[in-house]
Structures are given as structure tokens and as C-alpha cells.
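Continuing the series of single-chain predictions for the mutant panel. This is the parent chain; the variants come on the following pages.
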Amino acid sequence: MANKTQKELVPKPKSRFLRIKCLNCGAEQIVFGCATIEVKCFVCEKQLVQSTGGKARILTKISEVLS
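Parent structure:
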């Protein structure tokens, strides 16, 4: 049995990919949860994700969290 004080051999990732949906046109995109650039909708050019230096700020609806 592994002790809780021991480090995990393979740590779980702290970020995930997200399927987001544009509130203007309804188009869906897959983005990284720690995106380093601003992501715009490929259909209507509305900004969907804002970079913060760490976890990205999601400015729209998250449809699904992918693992």
C-alpha cells in the first residue's frame, strides 16, 4: 500500500482540455485549460478565452471537460 505522504509516481495533470461553445453563434471549439494566448471563435471572432498567465479565464459556456 502506498502512503499518502509519498509522492505519486505519475502525477495527475492539473489542467485539462475543454470543449467550449460560443454564445453568439453556437460553434464549438476544444481549448486547453491553461491557454497562453487569447482564443477567438473561428466563426464570429468573439473572444472566448483570456490568458491570465496560469489557468485561462473562460468567457463562455463550457460544454464538456475532456480527459
